[in-house]
Amino acid sequence: MTIHVLLVDDHPVVRAGLRAMFEEFENITVVAEAADGGAALAEVARFAEQGHPLDAVVMDLQMKPVGGIIATRSITEQFRTPVLVLTTFDTQSDIVAAVEAGALGYLLKDAPPEQVQAAVVATAEGRRTLSPDIAATLMDRMHRPVITLSQRETEILTLLATGATNREMAQRLFISESTVKTHLVHIYSKLGVDNRTAAVATARAENLL
Question: What is the pTM of this model?
Answer without folding.
Answer: 0.69
